[in-house]
Structure formats: structure tokens, C-alpha cells
Amino acid sequence: MEVKKVKVFNIEGAIRGMRNPLQSYKSSDTVICGDRVDIGEKDLSLMKKLTVAGKDHRKFLRQIFVSYDVMAPEYWWKQYHTYKVSTTENSTSQMHTLGQRLLNRNDFELEEDFKGFDIILEEINDLICSWQSNKDVVVWRKLIQLMPQSFLYLKTCTTSYEGLIAICLSRKNHKLKEWNLFIESMFQNCPYLKVLVDEIESSKGYRNV
């Protein structure tokens, strides 16, 4: 699994909107220079307060947008689809691309000692060769039916900080190591996301916010 090309947008706009209710713009102390964002102590304090107060109060998080590419197996994407709210994705097309070339172990998320998979891979490539030679729909159906959930799909996704916080709270320390890799990538590339997640987790009754 791989997470790359993480980009964060509209932090400045979200902070400005965060201060709209009380028109407390003069208190804002965030400095933004190009791609660098230094959230000031006053703004961060308000962000934490609103974040912990619950979804109705932290609407500004819905305005911080995140775009990223993920190469992940089908079994992980099935869980990711739980977070369809405020998310969008465009994926590589199995319908259009599967069968264009032979596959190898790097096309799947596999444990290194999973040697028995080579038999399955051989069957898959036999079907691909057959499909390439005759374009038989029956062969195509067999190929689709045989493809394991470990097959890697590349998808370009967009979501918000609110969506990422929901993921971090529910999937942190999950038994699927892919979730831990995804969350750590978000923490490393999304400014102050971990700070806000930690603030929620340390607050009383955070699972209800």
C-alpha cells in the first residue's frame, strides 16, 4: 500500500469562516506564506475548543480540503467506502485496464511468505493471455471472478479534515496495518490534524462528538 501526493487546501479560508460567528477576525494570528501554514496560538486554541465541542460546532473542519492518491488492495477499499460522506474518488478502471498486461506479485498486497499465491497468479495470467488472444467474454468473466481482494487499485481521493478525523478516531490501531499506514501518512502531511485528533481523544466522552 502507498499513500502519496497529499495536498491540503483552504486552511486560511476555514479559519476565517471559523471566526465569522463572533466576527473575531482581529484575534486571528495565523501566518500563511505560500504552502507554509503557521497557525497562531489564538487560532489553534479556538480550533481545539470547537473541535471538541462536537460536529455542529466544528463546521470549519469541513472547509479544510485534502487530496491524495492511494494505492491499496480491494479489501482495504471496502472499509474505506464506509466514509463516503464528503469524500470523492476516481480510480483506475478494472474494466478498461485489466487484461492489458500480465500481472506479478507487485500488483497485489501480499505477505512475503505467501508462496501459495503464485499458483493463483499463474491462473490469472493464463486467463489474461487467453483474453488477449480471443477477447472471449466468458474468459473475461472468469478473470474478474478469480481476481483476489489483494489486487491493488490506485485512486485519487478528496475529503475534508472532518472526514479524516472520523477515520482516525475509528481506525486508529486497527488490525489491518494499511489503516495505520494511511493515518500516519495523513498525520505527517496534514498540518495540525494529529493535534486536533489528540485533543478529541483526550476530552471526556470524545466518542460521542
Summarize the structure.
The chain is of the alpha+beta class and 209 residues long.
Write the layout of secondary structure elements.
Elements: E1 2-9, H1 11-18, E2 31-33, E3 36-38, H2 41-53, E4 65-73, H3 74-80, E5 88-91, H4 94-97, H5 117-134, H6 137-146, E6 152-160, H7 161-171, H8 177-189, H9 193-202
Antiparallel strand pairs: 1-4, 2-3, 4-6, 5-6
Helix pairs in contact: 2-9, 5-6, 7-8, 7-9
Written account of the structure:
The protein has helices at 11-18, 41-53, 74-80, 94-97, 117-134, 137-146, 161-171, 177-189, 193-202, and strands at 2-9, 31-33, 36-38, 65-73, 88-91, 152-160. It is an alpha+beta fold and 209 residues long. The chain has 2 domains: 2-68 and 158-208, no CATH class; 99-146, no CATH class. It has a 4-stranded antiparallel sheet with strand order 1-4-6-5. Helix 2 (41-53) crosses helix 9 and helix 5 runs antiparallel to helix 6 (137-146).
Features:
45% helix; single chain; 6 strands; alpha+beta; 17% strand; 4-stranded antiparallel sheet; 2 domains; 209 residues; two-stranded antiparallel ribbon; 9 helices
